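User: Can you write out an input/output pair for a complex, sequences first and structure second?

Assistant: Here is one pair. Inputs:
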Amino acid sequence: GAVVSQHPSRVICKSGTSVKIECRSLDFQATTMFWYRQFPKQSLMLMATSNEGSKATYEQGVEKDKFLINHASLTLSTLTVTSAHPEDSSFYICSLGTSGGAGDTQYFGPGTRLTVL
Amino acid sequence: GQNIDQPTEMTATEGAIVQINCTYQTSGFNGLFWYQQHAGEAPTFLSYNVLDGLEEKGRFSSFLSRSKGYSYLLLKELQMKDSASYLCAVRDPDYKLSFGAGTTVTVRA
């Protein structure tokens, strides 16, 4: 399967600051990446679909001006949490979907634990 | 949208078999996935079903009935390392995944 990395793995920041999370596809050219958020003891919730070279598609209820997504290349997508607040503290996970068949799954990065003080 | 239900917790003994059920109601179906997630880590892919029937991969098997909106993940010969959360996810025609809340499996010696 595809290998996906995320950086940083853990970040602690003050309320009001912005945090950038990088998601890299190490061995696959990903035209589409997905960003999820997972609160403690809850499941993954899709935030947005990141498309290379075009604007991201956000799920209902996700503020596009607060969660800025940039997918400038086939191997890198970034998520910036702007003016972070304690309620944004969560586990953020990216994934990329391989193409070429209905059986292909999504491969997940290791996640980024964000804590906003 | 998707509505996906699975039990919250299950406990089993090492060496035993556990079956995790998942029911779903969807506005579009393009496959069902099972993932394993250890605490603080990202999910890892276990299995995929798009047609009715049983898919077997070593100690793990997954079953799907599209007409019933039902799937199960079967874990055989349980090992301590199988203690984790198991996520049922349904993919829609746009290739987006919707996840259930996850089933925490605890394997006891």
